[in-house]
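Supplementary Note 3. Input sequence used for the single-chain structure prediction.
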Amino acid sequence: MKRPAWLTAIGVLLTAAMLFPVYWMIAVSLTPAGDLRKSPPDLFPASPTFAGYEQVLREQLPYFGTSLLVALGTVALTLVIAAPAAYALAKLRPPGRRVLGFVLLVAQMIPGIIMALGFYGIYVKLGLTNSVGGLVVADSTIAVPFAVLILTSFMATVPDELLQAARIDGAGPWRTFASVVLPASRNGVVTAALFSFLWAWSDFVFATTLDAGGRLRPLTLGIYHYIGNNNQEWNAIMATAVVASVPATVLLVLAQRYVAAGVTAGAVKD
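The predicted structure, written as discrete structure tokens, is reproduced below.
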């Protein structure tokens, strides 16, 4: 059945409206600093320049590296905790698993700033402020509940016959988890890992609360290098935003089919 032209037109307009902020971010990043004060501003850069990107690559690489370490560490810690927990809930079915599932849902409703303030009091006593490990643990508290719920629903779809065959062959619970359930849950693992990476990569609340004025900052705080009381380097700010968007965009493109399958499987009720 052919779709009406007016529906296509509405779809194109809505897509353009949603993508306009992305276009404006790229356009401003290519606009010379002197042209940013025009009123109204140019919709298209009259004299594009890569000065903002040169400045970002020269000054923001340490922040970029910190963000990458924090994001990858968060993914690793999240999967190490969430995958076995999800396996236990989905296949070992311990008593109280429904209560635990409800607790995981509630945990995702707690505002991040409340958790950040709690972490700050603990980290000051332990000396963990302004550390990669501290940010990894803090970001994982957001990622783990979501990952457990996603992986639990996904692992619940793995046929019990596969687990029974593994037990007949002499595999224990851990061997069954590592050799049967985890490979069969690849899409769910990729989905959980991707969202964990994106949360840690874009985190601002934990980063700014647990920074303590140190030099070890992620990219979300590095952008403040260009913001002052009397100076806002908007081309460098937007260039930083573009550079920060590249890893997330690449990961989403590469993992989109796994994410789609993982989210669909996560909708299956146990």
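The chain is about 75% helix and 0% strand. The two ends are 36 Å apart (CA to CA).
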